[in-house]
DNA sequence: AGTAGGACCTGGTGGC
DNA sequence: TGCCACCAGGTCCTAC
């Protein structure tokens, strides 16, 4: 579910509350798929217990929880994941896979569909982590430029949207909603071969990606179904969506009808008149 | 190598 | 009310 703006919202919401907290105890759901890529539950518990949280960073859609040992817990929320601070006396919600106990609160990771995953990077290995280091530039980093964007797409024949969804190629952090919104604002059709963008179009797309994501972060993300950024509060970008989920409705720019198609088995929304 | 499509899961919704 | 098919914001693997 969460794309970059939702993950960034969660990060900002949690950072101040967990930074400096010591992990007093760890609970991991038995046999949870989310930990399939870690060292094993027992070893992970040992690595986390007693450690102090020093920072909460974001790389693309990943959250990186830095510890005073120099290691880091790396979390991806998949389609349905969430991180919540709960009162110590409250029992954990359904589908909780991880609980970190602090002195006054507990942090839980909830994920009904179990598409999320948790990784662990040992001290000094965070920057060389195979998953994180393979990510394309973060849209808010200086390495994400219009030139780099166009180069990463050049020669590729797959649909532009498919290229934008690939976290390791052009840009990291875009998902199904924001990829559609960015294509719309840039005036480019999502089915265009990725390599067919002109320099001007690549600049517009680069600009749109930064603006759409920044605006969505300001709105604390989008709420389509069950996404909540913290204990029951919801994002407000939904009312600003220009194409996503608006099949048959009026385009706010040209008055035409929004179309829906499928790209790589993902629902795709666009305005056939505004997007060439 | 690059690309397409299904697989992996649970829960909510809308149609009958 | 109940049942069922379909849909969902993300990767990941396999096959062409």
Helix content: 25-40%
Query: Which parts are unreliable, with pLDDT below 50 for 5 consecutive residues or more?
Result: none
Q: Whole-number average pLDDT?
A: 95
Distance between the termini: 28 Å
Approximately how much beta-strand content do the residues carry? 15-25%
Strand arrangement across the biggest beta sheet: 1-6-7-5
The number of distinct β-strands equals: 10
Taking Cα atoms only, what radius of gyration do you get, to the nearest Å?
Answer: 20 Å
Account of the 3D structure:
The model has no long low-confidence stretch (mean pLDDT 95). The strands form 3 sheets. This protein has a 4-stranded antiparallel beta sheet with strand order 1-6-7-5. Helix 4 packs across helix 7 (199-218) and helix 6 packs across helix 7. It has helices at residues 4-18, 41-48, 130-133, 146-153, 160-165, 176-186, 199-218; strands spanning 25-28, 53-59, 62-67, 72-76, 82-87, 96-101, 105-110, 117-121, 259-263, 266-270. Strand 6 and strand 7 (105-110) form a beta hairpin. By secondary structure, it is an alpha+beta fold. The relative contact order is 0.14. The protein binds a DNA duplex (16 and 16 nucleotides) through helix 6.
